[in-house]
Amino acid sequence: MSKRLGRGLDALIPSLSVSEEDKVIEVQLAQLRANPYQPRKTFDDEAIKELAESIKQHGVIQPIIVRTVLKGYEIIAGERRFRASQLCGNSTIPAVVRNFSDMQVMEIALIENLQREDLNAIELSLAYQALMDKFNLTQEELSMKVGKSRSHIANFLRLLSLPEQIKENVSRGTLSMGHARAIVGVKEDRRKKELAELTIANEWSVRQLEEAIKNLDQPAPAKTKESAASKKKDPYINEVEESLRDRFKTTVKIKQQKEKGRIELMYYNKQDLERLLELLQKLS
């Protein structure tokens, strides 16, 4: 990992290790606060419980790294050990006090998680954006600092434009980074959400999703006077379309011609067609 990190981050890694020369103090848990720049937003409860059991038996083997702040201490590295100690009911934890700038604190938090590969795609995107915003960095400057290509940085930052619902799916792991990258290129948010729902429901691979998006991008037929007029739909028809979209998880169009008309259901591949046929058969 250190070979892939930028020089700035690589130089910080020795600062995270504790040697026999370091002065270790016992810090009250009540005096500690979490790192505000921690990019990881979710912690594995089971893993914390397992760590708590280990601490009960053996204590905290590796002291956490902290820095002094106005009211107590701020955790630089070791939030999992802190949380597990809380779970144990401990009142103190061994710690080493270091002096770090805000930028170093953000960088170190990123290092810790990159080394363990703990961050999901959205957490990493937010961490990159936070570094850029806090220290007024360009994508090029950030790429040099973290030892990643500029295209890597750009691809992750693009994910932040996705609708919240889709970002939550990526965070939970129900959609992969590959799925998210494919969906982010779709123009309409409504289409993005439909494709995300279909991907999850049908367990599509990234290739299957890309094929569905390719079918979406087929050129539309030339507009006629009739199609222009059809835009002025009855609000009731719009409401029915929306209801059917929610039910079938796909694009639905109702074409009206005076008192008659037709209902069109969009499918994106053979698997999606079979899914719709199965739903329709259940209604018969």
From TrEMBL:
<feature type="domain" description="ParB-like N-terminal">
    <location>
        <begin position="25"/>
        <end position="114"/>
    </location>
</feature>
<dbReference type="InterPro" id="IPR041468">
    <property type="entry name" value="HTH_ParB/Spo0J"/>
</dbReference>
<comment type="similarity">
    <text>Belongs to the ParB family.</text>
</comment>
<dbReference type="InterPro" id="IPR057240">
    <property type="entry name" value="ParB_dimer_C"/>
</dbReference>
<dbReference type="GO" id="GO:0045881">
    <property type="term" value="P:positive regulation of sporulation resulting in formation of a cellular spore"/>
</dbReference>
<dbReference type="Pfam" id="PF23552">
    <property type="entry name" value="ParB_C"/>
</dbReference>
<dbReference type="InterPro" id="IPR036086">
    <property type="entry name" value="ParB/Sulfiredoxin_sf"/>
</dbReference>
<dbReference type="InterPro" id="IPR004437">
    <property type="entry name" value="ParB/RepB/Spo0J"/>
</dbReference>
<dbReference type="GO" id="GO:0005694">
    <property type="term" value="C:chromosome"/>
</dbReference>
<dbReference type="GO" id="GO:0003677">
    <property type="term" value="F:DNA binding"/>
</dbReference>
<keyword id="KW-0159">Chromosome partition</keyword>
<dbReference type="Pfam" id="PF02195">
    <property type="entry name" value="ParB_N"/>
</dbReference>
<dbReference type="InterPro" id="IPR003115">
    <property type="entry name" value="ParB_N"/>
</dbReference>
<keyword id="KW-0238">DNA-binding</keyword>
<dbReference type="Pfam" id="PF17762">
    <property type="entry name" value="HTH_ParB"/>
</dbReference>
<dbReference type="InterPro" id="IPR050336">
    <property type="entry name" value="Chromosome_partition/occlusion"/>
</dbReference>
<protein>
    <submittedName>
        <fullName>ParB/RepB/Spo0J family partition protein</fullName>
    </submittedName>
</protein>
<dbReference type="GO" id="GO:0009295">
    <property type="term" value="C:nucleoid"/>
</dbReference>
<dbReference type="GO" id="GO:0007059">
    <property type="term" value="P:chromosome segregation"/>
</dbReference>
